[in-house]
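User: I'm curious whether this sequence folds into something compact or stays loose and floppy. Could you predict its structure so I can see for myself?
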Amino acid sequence: MARSMWKGAIQFGLVTIPVKLYLATESKGVSFNMLHAECHGRIQMKTYCPTDDAFIERSDTVRGYEIAPNQYVVVTDDDLASVPLKTVRSIEIEQFVPVDAASESTRFIKQAYYLEPEPIARKAFYLLKQTLAEKGLRAIAKIVLKDREQLASLDPFASTMLLSTLHWPDEIRSSADLTLPEDEVEIKPAERLMASQLIETMTREFDPAEYRDEYRQAVMSIIEAKAAGAETAEPAPAPTAKVTDLMAALEASLNAAKAGRAAPAEPASISATAGGPGGTVAPAASAADVEPTPIKRPETAAARKRKTA
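Assistant: Here's the prediction. I'll summarize afterward.
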């Protein structure tokens, strides 16, 4: 069963809707451990105090804010709990905005969360959700999460609502420092027409299920092959990008897109030429998603020596 990471209430006007918050996403990347190159033993990261010249436990640490070089103010959990803000235990709705009008300013998302209403608040929760959906509105709110007040948007999503934390305006970098001479670029009508045709050919309904993390699958295939004793082959060098005529590139891309739509290519996979231990495995770019397979690390000489000691 999913575990909530925050409990509080949606607040707007005199309405209070008790809810729980759940993470809507999770990382699926390949995680590596740091090993000692000589013995392949897993290294340990220790917390060191240079003042006492000693390693300490994480439980022996406190928060400190540096007010001057090497001068700190200690901030405790009680200090943070006493912060006089309504948003410490509530999603404080500040306003409602049309979804289309808010899309530009709510693009910079930090994290998404699902909301679950407490049983006593289900009617009010779904009344708010359905009203937002019917009117095409999005709620702009504030909430304190992880010791920080966050700007957030609240939107109807499936059978719940989605809270998306946003970056504050002063956290968003300006693009003014980039070299972006759009007004100086001359685009010919034929080029614009060809680009429009290419984009139209590639335009379709977005289905997230069509996409997979092919890099993760390729890395896991290499790991599984090495665990089975196979050697990995060097991948073929990627073709060097060449600067070519824009119209020719657009026309070739359009023809390839039309051909791809008529006969979609099968995804490449990773295969062992000899199979089993001793085979050779060449990295490929596409395959189905898999969960990482645990690999038992061979016993090192140092470990065997400790057993016999």
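Summary: The CA atoms of residues 190 and 247 lie 8 Å apart. The longest strand covers residues 148-157.
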